[in-house]
Write a structure and sequence with these properties.
The chain contains four helices and no strands. By secondary structure, it is mainly alpha-helical. α2 runs parallel beside α4 and α3 packs antiparallel against α4 (about 115-140).
Length: about 140
């Protein structure tokens, strides 16, 4: 009798659960992505995940600077040179991304791969920013 009561209680409890939140073992229900929030200290990152995240942020800052300089340069150029710069920039972006994918491929599957990739993107982007700044200085 006691065993039957436990079984019935279990069935009632399970049937009352919202089946959308139940998942098969090893799977997660469809929930918003959750991340533990911890203050990121890029002056002294302590984990590979933090290093990866800081390198990504550093690249994003370099990319913002590149875009600022590019947007400053474009209006200073006559139409034919402007189109050549646009074409060159598109080719450069493809080169940068492909080259950095190549650099990262050496570490494919390793936890350091994102750091290698974003570090490459940052360094290459900074070099291109310097080039564009030189064009900005030399063009009337």
């Amino acid at each position: 009798m006691r065993h039957l009561l436990l079984v019935l209680t279990s069935i009632l409890t399970l049937s009352a659960l919202d089946t959308r939140t139940m998942g098969i073992a090893g799977t997660m229900p469809d929930l918003p992505e959750m991340r533990l929030v911890q203050k990121l200290n890029c002056n002294n990152p302590q984990t590979q995940t933090a290093i990866n995240e800081c390198t990504k942020l550093s690249y994003q800052n370099a990319d913002k600077k590149l875009n600022q300089v590019y947007q400053q340069l474009l209006p200073t150029l006559e139409r034919s040179r402007k189109q050549k710069l646009i074409t060159a920039q598109q080719a450069w972006l493809k080169f940068r991304d492909t080259n950095c994918e190549f650099e990262r491929s050496r570490y494919e599957g390793g936890s350091i791969a994102p750091t290698i990739y974003f570090g490459c993107l940052e360094n290459t982007t900074k070099l291109r920013t310097q080039q564009l700044q030189e064009y900005l200085k030399s063009d009337p």
